[in-house]
Automatic annotation (TrEMBL):
Protein name: Universal stress protein
Similarity annotation: Belongs to the universal stress protein A family.
Residue ranges occupied by any UspA domain in the UniProt entry: 1-145
Residue ranges that the Swiss-Prot or TrEMBL entry lists as coiled coil: none
Pfam families noted in UniProt: Usp (PF00582)
InterPro entries in UniProt: Universal_stress_UspA (IPR006015), UspA (IPR006016)
SUPFAM superfamilies named in the record: Adenine nucleotide alpha hydrolases-like
Amino acid sequence: MKKIICATDYSSNSVSALKYAYALSKKINAELIILNIIEYPTVWNSDVPKPKFSDFESGARKAYQKLLNEFCTTHLGTNFNSQNVTLDVKSGEDVENEILNYANNTQALLLVLGVKGMSPIKELFLGSTTKMLISKSKIPVIAVPDGSKLEKFESLVYATTLADEDVIAIKKICDLFDSIITKIEVIHVSEKEDKISISKIEAFRKSLNAQFSSSNMELKIIYNNDVFETLKNYLKDQEVSILGMLEREKRVAWKNLFHRDLVKRLETSVNIPLISISQESV
């Protein structure tokens, strides 16, 4: 059976990710694993309840398992456990690597995370945790902003740089959601129209047409100098279920670095979920 992992930290900002992952797992008939990594040493903060136990090492797992069950019951309802849902608590000194290793070991299809962290003190840390997981994960990652709801899951907008890897990434996303996505818009924002860009656009269009039916796939080219603002405004004007992008590796080309920054800025500025696929996985 297909598996989705939702990594949670019990915080208020992770509630939207939990609800989103739960609703998505039912839509695509997948098992949902709700995972909490106990970090040693633990840094307490005001948002997260503090389980009571006399000895941390021996009592932590049981206490956190109870806390995770209470957290899910509060936000998913009392019958969530009968809906192909598994709760798991693990411990480790490195939260990011523990999540990645767990995803690899369980052969998960997808990893769902909240965009923000627990408290003002830890927000920077957990924000960077999400970004690191997007960069290193071998499976697609959905970053869910606070307040996002899975009311519909029909339309995908994919922001492309017209790279060959983008076609593979789009195919991966479509394979994940082939039963529910009915409309796909592939958007490219270009600074100017010239012979080189036109030639590249047409070559990319041919690659898309070779992989997908034209009935539900559309390539749109928008000319504007500000890529970020153009994409952000476009997404706000459309009814978009999810935004897709390729997370590029840290190679030296400045365009790759700009694209990585664009992924991060959109992740925290647009109130729709972002599905990101790492370049090394395509």
